[in-house]
């Protein structure tokens, strides 16, 4: 909750209401800060040294003069009186302070010692019953000690209020003050200022504040709805973009696979054609070499025979020349056939080369398409990065708006708790009025 609940931790079923002034105003000096902690009115009082408080609380006239309503002036007067008494209770020294016996009278010294003794006793009983159920934790002895503490505290406060000299001596001691007491005094000052602000606020101002608060709440709700809608749109866009990216990645994967297959097929085809062409060429060359060698040997033999025949028989020269012509014609035919076969193989090789160049062009086209797809993928990733930055900025804006809404809610909860606290004080003031006579009457305006 707020600082109100932190400094007002008195158990609801406790028979000992907070120690206050003679009029019964609550000053939560029983608040505990943890397990085994001493109540604010007992234990060691050396935890926090407080500076010398002002000699007097600011005059009620400084606040009442700005309030035109008599009832409001009375409420402020009661709050100022309660604050003055709370300060006096917080200034009460420990019974172990040796200066008390020399500064105060024996009666006051005995009253303070009795108060500390009762506080220690109440703390002991409270520690023994801390783990019991709420109904069983309050014993008759604790109720009796609570009544005694209230009685002694009221007597001391009444004495110091009626004797300014004794109050000055009390301030002169500069006794240490528990953090819970200092916190309660600060809280009481804040409550006084809030009450003053509320009493000085007109109905029109209050209505304007409520209207403004309603507008702020409506804006916050609209902002929350817008944020939810934007989140849904963002999630939808992310899903669509993810599906699109997955599709394109699948296309890229298929194209890469096809490209690898085409490369592999082209390499295999090229190797196979080269091997086949080389094998065929080697075979033809070997055949032609063998044929050429055979023809050359035959030609040599024929020439030898021709020479022998020319020498042996001149008559057969014409016949031999015809035979020579015939053989040379056959050789020329074989050479012509060789040239034709070579031209055919060259044409076949050119066709294979053309096919290879065509497939290479297709490969270049696929490579260019792959580069275009890669650029498009990079553009998509850049857009995603921009969208992510925008999303982070929207989240920061949403966090700032949520923080502002939480602060407004915290302020409203604090105001509601302080209003309930004010009602509780009004109820305790009414009970004090029954026991204290004239001082209790000052609580009637507060109830209204």
TrEMBL record:
Keyword Lipid metabolism in record: no
Comp. bias (Polar residues): 22-34
Cited InterPro entries: DRC10, IQ_motif_EF-hand-BS
Compositionally biased tracts (Basic residues): 431-448
Stretch list, region Disordered: 1-62, 269-288, 419-448
Coiled-coil ranges (or none): 342-405
Localization per record: Cytoplasm, Cytoskeleton, Flagellum axoneme
Keywords: Cell projection, Cilium, Coiled coil, Cytoplasm, Cytoskeleton, Flagellum
Subunit structure, interactors included: Component of the nexin-dynein regulatory complex (N-DRC). Interacts with CFAP52.
Stated role: Component of the nexin-dynein regulatory complex (N-DRC), a key regulator of ciliary/flagellar motility which maintains the alignment and integrity of the distal axoneme and regulates microtubule sliding in motile axonemes.
Protein family: Belongs to the DRC10 family.
Protein name: Dynein regulatory complex protein 10
Native species: Powellomyces hirtus
Organism placement in taxonomy: Eukaryota, Fungi, Fungi incertae sedis, Chytridiomycota, Chytridiomycota incertae sedis
